[in-house]
Amino acid sequence: MNFGDYIRVFALGTRLHGTWTEARFNYPGYPRDPDVFYRGMDFPFADNFDDAVADTYFFSNPTTGARWAVAPIAIGSLCDLPVRTVAGTDRACEVRFSGIEGVNGTSYSAASYKGTYTPNGQPETIFIRVTTPGSANDLSNSNGRIVTGVIGQNGLATDLCAAAQGASYQYHVVASSVFAGIDLDADRRRPVITFTSSPNFYHEVTFAPISLTGVVRLTIAVKFTATGVTVTLTNSDTDALLAEGFTVYPNGFTFAGTHAGAFKYSGVANNNGTLEVRDFTVHIP
After folding, report:
1. What does pTM read for this prediction?
2. Is residue 19 part of a domain?
3. Domain of 276: which CATH number?
């Protein structure tokens, strides 16, 4: 039994769907699972997607589809992200992009959680863990921008996804966002933080380039405080710090809408890519 299963069986009534990081979980009587990580019980939400049926669609199946919506920041947001099997009952959300985000004819992946956990003055940290498909390679040859953070949403709408055999899915009406993570393309491999708000506000902060050679699983942590945003990148397998950067909230930025955790994978160059998001955690002490 992995930790996600343990939570569902023994922590009934919670909103936890699995968790990860900092020390591999080894609950007495159960074998160590190298792909499940433990973070304690003081966060409001974690999801490792393990209750989803393999090879269904992330936004339209009855489990992850009940918790997650498409988050269309720009044109081309995909509604047919597959649920993939990592090993056994361990599931991942496959994310992909093609071309530069926002350009006609391109596509990208964005998901937002339907519930909201708005901090009451405390710092909030959002984590995702990502890999290449099946963890077959390290991330040094990957492309695109993989980020996590929050959107400001103005409600849910329902549509049909033609690419998912006409399945029904929901999407958020997005008014603003704060995302942080990394540009993976070799000529710009560096941490990044972005701010958007209606109607046309956009602000981007980048940091020094880093190497991802030998990094198979990447943890992206985004911390929100009263003064600004910190992005931290670590090797999920060793906890080694790869990079960290901080920026204040930019002048002119207004966070509008209801807070919702989210992740996104998009293009910053005219290429394409596929990754797996293994899990998602919101931590508010």
Report:
1. 0.86
2. no
3. 2.60.120.870
> What is the four-CA torsion angle of 40, 42, 47, 48, rounded to 10 degrees?
0
pLDDT per residue over 112-149, tens digit each?
999 877 777 788 999 999 999 988 899 999 999 999 99
What is the C-alpha to C-alpha distance for residues 69 and 61, in angstroms, rounded to an integer?
Answer: 11
Q: CB-based burial of residue 274 (10 Å sphere; 0-12 exposed, 13-18 middle, 19+ buried)?
A: middle
> What is the rounded CA–CA span in Å between residue 184 and residue 131?
12
- Does 165 reside within a domain? yes
Nearest to 175 by CA among 260, 250, 252, 247: 260
pLDDT digits (tens, 9 = 90+) for 79-113: 999 999 988 888 999 999 999 999 999 999 999 99
Number of helical H runs and strand E runs in the chain? 2, 18
d(CA 17, CA 266) in angstroms, rounded, equals 26
CA angle 172, 175, 178 (to 5 degrees): 95
